[in-house]
Amino acid sequence: MSAARRSGRILRVAAPLGVALLVLAAWHALVVVYDLPRYIVPSPLVVAQTLAADWELLARSLLVTMKITLAAFALAVIAGTLVAFLFAQSRWIEMSLFPYAVILQVTPIVAVAPLIIIWVRDTQLALVLCALIVAVFPVISNTALGLRSVDPGLLSLMRMYKASRWQVLWRLRVPSAAPYFFAGLRISSGLALIGAVVAEFVAGTGAAGAGLAYQILQAGLQLNVRASLPRSPCSRSPAWRCSRRWCGSRTPCCATGTRHGQRAGRGVARVRGEGARSEAMNVSGEPRRMPSPRNLSPNGVIGERGPGNPSIAHAADSRFRGNDDLPQSFPRPRRAARLARALIAAMLAMTGAGSAAAQPPDKLVFTTNWYAQAEHGGFYQALARGIYRAHGLDVEIRMGGPQVNGLQLLVAGATDLFMGYDIQTVQAVRQGLPVVTLAATFQKDPAVIIAHPDVRTLADLKGRPIYISPASHTTFWPWLKARYGFTDAQLRPYSFSVQPFLADRHAAQQGYVTSEPYSVEKGGVKPALFLLADLGYPPYAQTIVATRSTLAARSDAVRRFIRASAEGWKSYLAEPAPGNALVKRDNPQMEDALIAFGIAKMKAYGIVTGGDAARLGILAMTDERWRRTFEFMRDAVLVEPGFDVRRAYTLELVAGVRVLP
What we know:
Elements: H1 3-33, H2 44-53, H3 55-89, H4 91-106, H5 109-119, H6 123-148, H7 152-160, H8 165-203, H9 212-222, H10 244-247, H11 274-279, H12 312-315, H13 335-351, E1 362-367, H14 377-384, H15 387-390, E2 393-398, H16 406-411, E3 417-420, H17 422-430, E4 435-442, E5 447-451, E6 466-468, H18 476-484, E7 491-493, H19 499-503, E8 508-512, H20 516-522, E9 528-531, E10 541-547, H21 548-553, H22 555-574, H23 577-586, H24 592-605, H25 613-616, H26 623-635
Helix pairs in contact: 3-4, 3-6, 3-8, 3-9, 4-6, 5-6, 5-8, 6-8, 8-9, 14-22, 14-23
């Protein structure tokens, strides 16, 4: 091999490798310089740690996804080549069928995947077919183009020598089409992987058949990014920022060359129960003084008054329980911004314009967990009736959706409040995210199992197929398995459509008591409904969640939001018309009949006004209920036994609301 060829091969490998190293170095530098929390932008080291720590789990999922990808790619090569050969035999055939191949290519896979899943009972085969639809077109188009792109002179010569159609194909067209064919394979191979992952997202496969998409979805729901290397909080900040005040600790750190807060072994925010509480105290038994509200420890707790658990009043002074295992800071505000705020405050004080009566309303952005519907009506009612405005608030309600990760928007600062869920919040706190639950809209989780009329009890569903979404695999599905003996073999992918349920008289599916039963009844089936909350499933639902920095900096505005929201729900359940108008404005596809159905079910089952709300007021929560939720999660191995569930919620804000139904 000549030196030129050898150097060319080395350059072909070294050039992209060098670019990759530069990108990784720049990525890591940005994370370190701007002190970005790992749940916003993890550093390359954290990504590598996560891959190493979870490799066994990820490898199994990777194997599942690669099997689907390779099967789809092989079928795409075979089917695409055969169709291209067919097109090459007749211009009329190509003109008649090629437009349909184009239509198949441009049709969103999310639109046809639910139908394929209904028609094909084998989930893995359904996923292969979905990936095939995405991957087959490049093979068809490129191969057909190559088979047509022959030298006219050579084609005339073959015809002059009376070559048969078969001889023309194999001796002329196939060799000419080879470069086009392999170019199509290069495109199709990537699309097969994309199609497999997208199909897994749509199908929601889990349990034994979980692919990469399922793991991505579950990690996204919990913002699960591991940070397992022993490191000091100071190591997350540039050297010029390193000080005892920045670290939030009285223990000497990098300023004196002493390391502190090291973590042992593998873990995600190691849970130590009472030990974590004791470590967060100094020698005098008082909570450590943490940095300013923008730099609060995400593991700090605002909760019930008591030793080692400061109240909201302490929040203004930035005194929280800390845990050196977790990120200790958020990026500091710019000095210019602080100076501008100080000047504005001084001008207002001098002119007398800073009085409470003249202040503009506090702006709050609240993101829901789904498209606007009756289940969000109380918040829209408070907006429509001017209740938020009367409490000095300017509230913007933003709709969520199936692909909107509200928890990520919350910790990124893109929203002030988020409509969350108990189990998700506990998992987030377990991962070290600085979030806390403030109130519970639904006293009962409206999740139901919908069955056909012949089913009398949930136990009758043992062995039958049950359509469950990916998110439910780590919520009520473990509870159903533990209580009723269900198995993962019963799982079927739920794509938020009742069609599979209507097509299979033996199947059951999940749903909300306020929505899916309405669609089932429209399909001609009077379903049997099993509200899991009435059978002992403990979590609250549609909770109000904030970050600890927001709560510390804007506790009064958040408190007023909770009070106004409770009043909005009471008004909505009495006269919902104003709130419904705003629901339909944000979600024009929402039917009046479905809204009425949802309101009727919420009243009938006491979703908003039952449980603790009947005696403590709308949006109420209790320690006992959270304890039961923790015990369920502990028994289902969703959280470590030593986890302190009080880190995930506070009763401070909702305790004084008491808006009785």
